[in-house]
Amino acid sequence: MGTTVFRNGAVFCADAARTTASAVAVRDGVVVAVGGDAEVATYVASADDVVDLSGQLLVPGFVDAHVHPVMGGVERLRCDLTAGETIDDYVATIHEYAARSSQPWVLGGGWSMSAFPGGCPSKEVLDDVVPDRPVYLPNRDHHSAWVNTLALELAGIDETTTDPVDGRIERDAHGCPTGTLHEGAANLVARLVPPDTQRDMDDGLREAQRYLHSLGVVGWQDAMVDVGGSGASPHEAYLRAQEEGWLTARVSAALWWDRTCPRDGIADQVAALAKLRDEVACLGNRYRAPTVKVMLDGVAETHTAAMLEPYLDRCGHPTGNTGMSFLDATLAAEVTTALDAAGFQVHFHALGDRAVRDALDALSLARAVNGTADRRHHLAHVQLVHPDDVPRFRPLAATANIQALWATHEPQMDELTIPFLGTQRARRQYPFGDLFRAGATLAMGSDWPVSTPDPLAAIHVAVNRVHYGAAPGASPLGQPQALPLQVALSTYTAGSAWVSQLNQWTGTIAVGRPADLVVLDRDPFDVSPDQIGSTAVERTYVDGHLVYRA
């Protein structure tokens, strides 16, 4: 493999000692020197490559602690709406894709709720573009789907169809479905969609890995690996990629907890997941499955995130709706305690403050029953955390797995969220600063394809609480909740590697560690905070191998 030396720049090691350096030497995929010119001098003469950083920053490879890569990769290869922002953008993309695709359904996704009145697109728009085939397009957060009339008719959804217990059908004043399906209601159509083939999954993983490496991501926790069916799956794609030798990323899988499991079935489901985990552990270390994903609630934009207080109506009055709990608090605690006893890490989807409290209560019971252990349980999203619950994270060893890119003013926040939360709750959204000051461990992820997987875009928001490119003077979303750049950068490297249980291989730069490294095109510590997001990735290395070069 040879020797590579990086010099004449800055090195952010992301270690506990906050080590700084200007040079690093790598031999045969392992870091052999960290320091300055003196420490790497003996390696320069025989190096196969000497990278002159010229003031740029060398950082550990980024680790995404909450991402759906196979789903994202598959969508990039289909009708990919993620680059659009308006209805016209989506219409153009759908029209172009439908014209070149001969598939019986139009599939893909990635639309933004903010592009549509009330966040809900209509079937008529799709009917005009694709009148001859059913269309099923999840939005960016995959909590809602946009369908055309033909898809509704195939599913038998009309004004007489009742909402499922875990979802809602958007309707007009006469009760007729309008073309937007939330949460479990989307499954009424999704169950009719032709199943993905294993080739789809494999191609999606290849595309996702290529794309993520281009953004400096060297590893991740896949936040939803469902192995409950008999068909194609991301799990099989990972196993095949590892066996065939093209899985260059380090992957930790969060196996999906079937929330329809009754109480008397908990032990059996835990045992089945443990068997799968142990089988995977025998096959290699690129792909592991130490985690179970437990979905507690929905999202605030559709009023399905579980809240302690009701959502408001458009006039600011409390409604009777406090969101959805996919598992009631007692059942969530029983499931968590059983998984913890079996040695699993639990990865909670907990967005509303009631879901966060239920997760912390569940962890409290698990510790009382099972004692303490290094499980690294974590709560993803944490959009709302009641102030009384912020100091509970540290004593419960609960990590806050944050999606920093969302902590900013944008149409989905300003039009579909804040008015229905009210001023007081809106002020305490995404309390990263409070959690950090209270001693909570932080990790960071993108939730791609919900939002871009670019770590530097998320780090920019974590520091500024506005997105990169925002108009001068743009109002930050809760400025006291901003994180220092050093903390944000450590969170997306060392913090995410730790919570994903990949920290023995990646997340920091130190002698003896695998050389998972990223060269940035500048040193973001040397630019003004509002320019952090202009930073880009020039090179990505995994085990010393160059897997991406701009």
CATH superfamily of the largest domain: Metal-dependent hydrolases
User: How confident overall, as mean pLDDT?
Assistant: 96
- Read across the widest sheet, the strand sequence of neighbours is 8-15-16-17-18-19-20-21
Low-confidence stretches: none
Structurally, how many domains make up the residues?
Answer: 3
Helicity level: 25-40%
What is the C-level CATH assignment of the largest domain? Alpha Beta
Q: How many beta-strand elements?
A: 24
Brief summary of the model shown:
This protein has 550 residues and is of the alpha/beta class. The protein folds into three domains: 3-60 and 510-549, Roll (Urease, subunit C, domain 1); 104-190, Diaminopimelate Epimerase, Chain A, domain 1; 198-499, TIM Barrel, CATH 3.20.20.140. Helix content is 31%, strand content 21%.
